[in-house]
Structures are given as C-alpha cells and as structure tokens.
Amino acid sequence: MRRKATSDVWWKNAVLYCLDVETFLDADGDGSGDLRGLVDRLDYLAGLGISCLWLMPFMPSRQRDDGYDITDFYGVDSRLGTHGDLVEVIRTARDRGIRSTRGSARTATWSRSSAPRATAASG
C-alpha cells in the first residue's frame, strides 16, 4: 500500500494517553488538577512517547455523570482553567509532536449505542 493512501490514518500507530485533567496535576494549589498543570508536564508525556492526548471532558458540566453531562461544548470548566489555558495545552502539545482530542458525551453515547447487545439467544 502506498504511503499516500494511509497518511490520514495516523491513529493506527499512535500512542494514545487518556487523561482526566481534574486528576492529573494541580498547578494553582486548589487541590484539583488543571490545564496549567497539564502544560507543565507535556515534556514528560512527550518523553514517554505519547503521540496523542485524549482529554476527558473539561467542559462545563452539572457533574451528575462524571462530567459527561456537558452544558457547553465550546466552554472550559472554570475550575480547570480558561480558553487561553486550553489553547496553550494544544499549542504546546503540537510543538512536541502530540496531537490532542477530547472525550465527550457524544463519543461516550456512540460507544454505548454501537456496542453489541446481549440477547437471550446469544447469552
């Protein structure tokens, strides 16, 4: 297969690291992880060979479903930082060759709805 044909499937050989910002590293001393803490450790993650960060939901939420009940898909939970902090995470990660993606209710819902369902006949 030609390289051109597979150049858009970078994820096939990627090393993904699923990360919950809130539990990762606290940079501001409030007892909860934040985006600035993540920026502080991106060199460490790059050194591990991570090629993609999969960020668990960092958007505003009612916190009734572990953050998946997102109230603003374009926002950043103020406990975790600002839009500027998020831009810094993405820019710094890109500078180190790390892609980034985010988890959301849409991906979680898709995963649940697309999973094979057990039936009485199949066990």
Descriptive report:
- With 123 residues, the protein is of the alpha/beta class.
- It has one domain (13-106): Transcription Regulator spoIIAA (2-Layer Sandwich).
- Helices cover 35% and strands 10% of the residues.
- It has six helices and three strands.
- The protein has helices at 3-6, 21-24, 35-40, 42-47, 83-95, 105-114; strands at residues 16-19, 52-55, 99-102.
- It has a three-stranded parallel β-sheet with strand order 1-2-3.
- Strand 2, helix 5 and strand 3 (99-102) form a beta-alpha-beta unit.
- The protein starts with a helix and ends in a 9-residue tail after the last helix.
- Residues 107-119 have low confidence and may be disordered.
**Spatial sequence of strands, sheet with the most strands:** 1-2-3
Which class of secondary structure composition applies to the elements? alpha/beta
Order of helices and strands, N to C? HEHHHEHEH
The CATH first-level class comes to: Alpha Beta
Q: What is the CATH topology descriptor?
A: Transcription Regulator spoIIAA
Supply the number of helical segments: 6
Helix content: 25-40%
Shape: globular
Low-confidence segments, given as residue ranges, are: 107-119
| Residue-averaged pLDDT | 82
Largest sheet: 3 strands, parallel
How many distinct beta strands?
3
Q: What percent of residues are in strands?
A: 5-15%
How far the N terminus sits from the C terminus, by CA atoms, comes to 40 Å
How many domain regions? Answer: 1
